Every structure is written in structure tokens, then in C-alpha cells.
Amino acid sequence: MTTSTRAAAAAFDFPYITCRNISAPEDDAAGRKVYSGHAPASSVLSLEDDENVREYLADAQGDQKHIPTLVHQAIRKTLEDQPDQFSILNGGMVIVARGVEVDDKRKILVLQRPSIINGSQTQGELDRYFAKYRSSPDFFEPSIKFELIVTADDGLIAEISIARNFQNDVRPISIAGRRGQLDELEVAVQKAIPGAKLRKSETDVIDGEYLDTEKLIQVMFALMPGALLKSLDGDGDASNKVFTYSQKTKCLKLFQRLVDASREDSESSDVYQYFLDIAGQAWKIYERWKSHPGFRRTRLPAVARENGRGAEVPDGIIFPVLSAFSAFVDRSDKKWEITIPDVFDENELIEAAAQAYMEIASRNPQTMGKSKACYSTLLRLTSIYAMLGRAA
């Protein structure tokens, strides 16, 4: 039971009691592994938690200590009063690693760059318990349940961390809404879609009343010309739009940063104007291609059909298509617009997308959404049409 690992200096020996590979077929297909089991509590004490969205809240902050929450108190009470029941009363810990070697003989997992992504409060209380009672002659070391997710996909790790902490986390969309960072965007959308309301809180349900704000922002990043994206995220690869599909949190945070910077920086203000100009048109394009009837003719197994009339195209196919439309985005008269040339043939783009889905993405929408090759293939096609349109 061994998973191949990439070489990394940050190896960590994790003794365990039981360990089983519980990877689902989709995990195997994506090249990741999931393990579950029990470990001595001491195994988790030295783990980093740098990938977690929430650190141990009872740690000191300067001279001010946080008051232990009800969660901390419950963990503390179990450890002090019923340590032999800790493994069944505590929810355990979720750990992520970039690689793992399973040594069944020594019962050790050799983890590459591991981090807790859910369980920092448990780790903090275990640290406290060990420090206080370990020297006692009747000290009892409890076991702890663990789930280990092995993946090298940093974007996925971030999303898992956020998802696994959802019950305790204030979602970024709520923070952006509360700070008013979505107000101007909503007004911009309403110019093209009267009465439209953006989701500004995790309690706003996307059921027809609210537009999916995070999806809209992802769509606008997918449509963004490479030069503009480079000016916004100088450290990134402007030709790689994979993040627009797979990292909605990154998209939202980049947008929040831009909103704040636009109030003081004219260059950021110009980039921010792109979002305000393009918002309504971007959402209309997304909705149109999400149910584009042309995809029915492709007979792709991933495209769901509704009563034989329409199509529901997965986002993994849609986002490379949207990114291809960035070739048609330009600024004229101080306003960003999507101007599609008269010579553009939608059917040719659909056929190219279907071919990329079959031949590059191996008929997997998620793979297509994360494949730079699929994005660049479709963008090359629309770039030719954009040149023809300018020459006409």
C-alpha cells in the first residue's frame, strides 16, 4: 500500500495504529489518494497547520489570550475526564500532504510537506493536555482519527481547507459583501440585466433570486485579456487560465484586492473598470454557452440534455471556451467590450472544444477545466478569427 511521492525536503514521520486506503475511483483518476485510520495522539503534535484557514484560536495574541470557546472546553473536558473515549467523541483531524510512503512493517506514514487543514483546535488542546499531564505516572495517551488527503494540487488543497472548515468559517463572499466590495459590480450587472441581484452572503441562496457572484467573477477572469491579467497578477502566468475554473476563492480574493487598490491607484482603477464594463455581458455569454444548443450535436456524454431540447454543459468544458473569447475583448472609447467578428463560426469553436474534450481531456470535464492545453488550443482558434475581424 504505497503511493509514489515526489522528492521533498520536508518529510515527516507519522506513526499510525491503523491505516486504510479509502480513495474513490475519481480520486484515483485524478492522481490523488485518500487514507483513513487511527494514530497515537502524539503523532499529530508536531504537524504544521500552515494550509489551514483557521489557526488554534486559544493561542496568545501578544499579551491578550483568547477565551476558550465551547469547542475548546468540550475537547478539554473529554481529554481530562474521559481520554479513553476521545477517539470516538472527537471528530478527528484532516491532514493534507503532497506525497506519502506507507511503511506497513513499521506502521509509519512518511509524509511530504504535510499540514493540518481541519483540526487545529484539536491539536492545540492535545498540546495543552500533553504538556500538563504527560509526566503523570497514570498518563493515558488517546488515539485520534485521521483522514489523509494526498495531492500536489495547491489550488485543490486551498479549496479543501475552506470546505472542511465551512461550519466555523466566515465565507469570503460574506466578507466581500459586508465590506461593500460587490455593490458597484451589482449596479454594473443591472445595467445589462435589470433587477439582477448578486449573492453577497453565504446565506443568500442561489435559487433564481441571486446570481452566483463568485461564478460571475470567475467568468470575468476567464474572459480577461492576457495583458490585463498580467498587470493584475504579475507573478502569474497570463496565458494560463486554469485557475479561473478551479480556484474560485483565488478569483474572489484577487477581485477584492483590486477593488481596494482601485481607490488609490489609477492603474488598478483601470483594471477594475474592466469588471464593471464587462459584467453583464460576461454573465449573458456564460449562460448562453452553458446551454448552447450546438453542443447537442456533439453527443458528448458529459453534456446533459433536457427533454431533448437544450443542453447543460459542464463548467469544465465551458471555461476553456470562455477563455477563448478573451481574444474578442478589447477597449474602445474608454469602455471594455466583447466584440465578436462577423466571420466567427460558433460551430467551429464547439467542434474544437469537443475534440479537446475527447482527445486532450480523455472525456473528463474536470480534466478539461484544469488542462492548460485545452485553453490554449481554443484560444488559438479565436485569435485567428480576431485577426481576420480586424483585417476586414
Commentary on this structure:
With 392 residues, this protein is α+β, with helices and mostly antiparallel strands. Helices cover 45% and strands 16% of the residues. A hairpin with a 3-residue loop joins strand 11 and strand 12. The longest helix has 25 residues.
Number of separate strands: 14
The share of residues in extended strands comes to 15-25%
Unreliable residue stretches: 1-9, 60-65
Structural class: alpha+beta
Report the radius of gyration as a whole number of Å: 25 Å
| Largest sheet descriptor | 5 strands, mixed
SSE run: EEHEEEHHEEEEHEHHHHHHHHEEHEEHHH
Helix content: 40-55%
**How confident overall, as mean pLDDT?**
86
Give the terminus-to-terminus CA distance: 62 Å
Strand order of the largest sheet: 2-3-10-6-9
Shape: elongated
Count, helices: 16
